[in-house]
Amino acid sequence: MTPLALVITTRSGPGVLHVVTGIIAAHSGDITSLTIVESSRDLTRLILEVSVQDAEALLADLAAAEPVTKVERVATFQHVFGKRVIIMGGGAQVGQVAIGAITEADRHNIRGEKISVDTIPLVGEQALAEAVRAVSRLPRASVLVLAGSLMGGEIEKAVRDVRAQGLTVISLNMAGSVPDASDLVVTDPVQAGVMAVMAIADTARFSIGRLSKRVF
Amino acid sequence: MTPLALVITTRSGPGVLHVVTGIIAAHSGDITSLTIVESSRDLTRLILEVSVQDAEALLADLAAAEPVTKVERVATFQHVFGKRVIIMGGGAQVGQVAIGAITEADRHNIRGEKISVDTIPLVGEQALAEAVRAVSRLPRASVLVLAGSLMGGEIEKAVRDVRAQGLTVISLNMAGSVPDASDLVVTDPVQAGVMAVMAIADTARFSIGRLSKRVF
Asked: Which is the most buried residue in A175, A197, B96, B101, by most CB within 10 A?
């Protein structure tokens, strides 16, 4: 199966997506994502990531379909932006964790990896709990770092939920119940960022599962 | 039209997406994105963002469809992560721009905005040009900051292309032709990050278009 990323321009109108997904289903293509990047009265531009046996045949059928005006092959987000470290919490700490993570990602990306560092400063238990839960739905998110001074309650529940779904969670050493609910607790925010990148880098010899100690 | 984000669990198999998009087309729903977050031999979990007149009727028809086993309503990425500042380039500079952008985003998010700061440290003209072009395809990306010491050639062309598509580009003051191709040139990386956030925040009184000077 060849992974393809396509930018497809179509006329606008109800049912256009249905036609496009129908063509892909006919080729037994496996769609991994589809985003409408632009939609005016006349034209719609969509990005499709799909894996398929016969890329050329699919491209030809898409280009020939009635609603389609243009099909363009582009780089996949996995190829360009790779795995994602997600950092959230208070602005002061998120910034310091980001410094560590970006510097470490730089060292791995130079050796051929692709690791992105994505952040959002947020305040409030509900907003943070909602954002933690949303990470499990983010494409290519591999590890979450919670960076703050006090987190518990709903955020702790959200951390337990996303860990149960397979996400690795690193917490700064802070007040509240979030550190107890996390895979790893780190006191220095720069080191927390570095460790988050090490945990997901294929070029690093580091595995959280193999640590004998969980608090640093 | 109500914007909805749904997590839909279905049986796995070719054509399932075609069924789901068919139901949405029948409700004149406007799909903005669709991502397959998990796909095993038996089950597929997909996230759908869609705007529709009658949300309850769509939810009922989706839940009743043959391949669907569960429909769950969640928060949209726009609601949780909001607009995105994208920073790319050398690790040292990307980290400093991130510090400025995260600190400034914190101040706006406290006042009710949602602004994320997403970064990738990269080396090399081709990798950077490819990443710049990919930003125009990233959902919710509002402004790009190029943070490095030397950028030109293919990167300059990519900057001109994405600006023509409506993206705002801020460049650090650096060697090469990228600063000349950008909307704004800033010498201090922390200030570049702050200005990037100010440029997209609804709570800021700042507009790059209204500046009489383009280099700081």
From this structure: B101
Q: Are A133 and A162 in contact (CB under 8 A)?
A: yes
pLDDT tens column, A179-202:
999 999 999 999 999 999 999 999
Residue B4 corresponds to which tokens in the numbers above? 């909805």
CA–CA distance, B168 with B67 (Å, rounded to integer): 43
Q: Sheet containing B2-11: which strands, arranged edge to edge? A: A68-74, A2-11, A43-52, A30-39, B30-39, B43-52, B2-11, B68-74
Residue with the two structure tokens 């990519």? B158
Buried b (16+ CB within 10 A) or exposed e, B107-144: bbbeeebbbbbbbbbbeebebbbbbbbbbbbbbebbbb
- List chain B residues with CB under 8 Å of A158: none
Which residues on B lie below 8 Å from A17 (Cβ)?
21, 24-25, 31
Q: Which of A194-208, B22-36, B67-81, B144-158 has the highest mean pLDDT?
A: B144-158
How many Cα atoms sit within 13 Å of A62 on the Cβ side?
A: 28
Within 10 angstroms of residue B205's Cβ, the number of other Cβ atoms is: 7
Q: Which of residues 21-60 of A touch B (CB under 8 A)?
A: 21-22, 24-25, 28, 30-37, 39, 47
Interface of A with B in 76-105 (CB under 8 A): 77, 80-82, 90-92, 94-95, 98-99, 102-103, 105
Task: Find chain B residues with C-beta within 8 A of A116's C-beta.
Answer: 118-120
Residues of A in contact with B75 (CB under 8 A): 130, 133-134
Contact A183, A170 (CB under 8 A): yes
Here the tokens at position B123 are 């080396």
Contact A167, A109 (CB under 8 A): no
Quote the mean pLDDT of chain B: 93
Residue of A21, A27, A50, A51 to mutate, interface with B, max B Cβ within 10 Å: A21
- Chain A and chain B share a number of CB contacts under 8 A equal to 172
Q: Which residues pair with A71 in a beta bridge?
A: A8
Residues 143-182 (A) with a CB less than 8 A from some CB of B? none
Tokens of B62: 């989706």
Closest by Cα among B149, B139, B144, B146 to B163: B144
